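From the pipeline queue, job 12 of 40. The input is one protein chain; the requested action is below.

Action: predict structure.
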Amino acid sequence: MAGTFEVDGDGVISEVRNFSGHYRPRDTPGHTPLLDVTRRAFQGHGWDFADDVWNYYSGPTRPLN
């Protein structure tokens, strides 16, 4: 998975995005949701974030050429 995240002045994760600019991961039926994958990766390093900071990018609004 790719993406970015923001941390506020108190060191709290304030936004997590799955958009990276080139790699476009998406939730796919039958696979673990991206929010769950992301949360587990962060928690594996001792970090967590609130559900409302997840900014899910669902993909382009027009077909890619």
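Job complete. The helical segments are 34-43.
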